[in-house]
Amino acid sequence: MNIAVLASGSGTNLQVLIEQLHEDKATDINISVVISDRKQAYALIRAKQAGIPTQIVSVKNYNNRIEFDAEIARHIECYSAELIVLAGFMKLFQPPFVRKYHNRIINIHPSLLPAFPGATAVADTLAKGVKVTGVTVHYVDEGVDTGPIIAQTSIPVYDTDDEESLHKRIQIEEHKLYPKVIKWYAQGKIKVEERKVITDSSETL
Ligand code: GRF
Fold it and tell me: Residue 7 C-alpha to ligand 1 middle, in angstroms?
């Protein structure tokens, strides 16, 4: 199965997907392209080091977000990607793109959704003083981090945590959860019934 990974930043999740999926011949999962909206994204260097094609699609080169999305869609088709994996991709898609790839776009988010959606999830978690947070992998719908939830892992928040220490522990869990979920997807083990996602997997998280 070909997948496209979209990343705007450092790409630690991408790195894990390269090592545990793309380079593991037992999985039959191939990252056919890495797309970024930022030409400085370190994720692009990680992709190049692994010999994976990269594409930069920068918002400023398009008249509007529909055209930006269409260019991303063109690359998705060109590289025959069945699944679109958002790994720290900091742009929201417009409804036509989301409809075109219904249940074929997944995202990883650093909180237990529906708590703390949006770009400042870890800071928001600390500001609210919650004692348990975690990681969510979900389908992307037309809202901000509102799509059907596929899998979650919880982690404790310590009194001594700051944004950096908490995000670091969250990322350790992200790096375990994302490859697992993508493998389930490739094996046809994920079924969506409206808002409810059933993962037909005997593997525990
Ligand atoms: C992750 O923490 C993810 O939850 C969020 O963006 C971050 C990306 O990190 N959506 P990285 O670029 O994969 O290191």
Answer: 8
pLDDT at 203: 66
Indicate whether 204 pLDDT > 80.
no
- Closest ligand 1 atom, CA of 9? 12
Please tell me the residue having the least CA distance from ligand 1 atom 12.
11
Are 73 and 12 members of one domain?
A: yes
pLDDT for the residue 202: 66
Name the domain boundary from 82, 101, 120. Answer: 101
Query: What CATH number did the domain enclosing 136 receive?
Result: 3.40.50.170
Q: What six digits make up the tokens of 44? A: 């692009």
pLDDT interval class at 194 (50, 70, 90) = confident
User: Is residue 175 among the annotated active site residues?
Assistant: no
pLDDT of residue 200: 79
